[in-house]
Specification:
Helix content: 40-55%
Radius of gyration: 16 Å
Largest sheet: none
Number of strands: 0
Oligomer: single chain
Strand content: under 5%
């Protein structure tokens, strides 16, 4: 049996769990402070806005041809496929997500 699980909350905060991966995917060597991603992901009120701003700041110094329009939507799957579980395991919201999944599987009698 295969069950697809798609989190719909906290995904942007989880993208900030590996800031080095995020910076690689948006193509910058700027610091976390320059990109305003230096705080704990779960302490950021609107992580989507923070990531969009980081993309804008990262791309602003590039020549127009290289700058290309990179959006948050472009990096969802890139980061989702590459982020290490150990990075997510450091986040309380991810721990809650895992426990909620376990509880749902227990209710469905798919897990003891």
């Amino acid at each position: 049996m295969l069950i697809a699980l798609v989190p719909v909350q906290e995904t942007e905060a989880w993208m900030l769990a590996d800031k080095e991966l995020l910076k690689k995917e948006i193509g910058t060597e700027k610091t976390d402070i320059e990109l305003t991603i230096h705080r704990s992901p779960e302490k950021i009120a609107n992580p989507k806005e923070v990531i969009e701003e980081a993309i804008r700041v990262a791309r602003e110094g590039m020549v127009k041809r290289r700058r290309a329009q990179l959006t948050l939507a472009d990096i969802y799957s890139l980061i989702g496929q590459k982020i290490g579980i150990e990075k997510l395991d450091n986040l309380n919201s991810y721990q809650d997500f895992k426990e909620n999944i376990r509880s749902a599987f227990r209710r469905l009698k798919l897990l003891d």
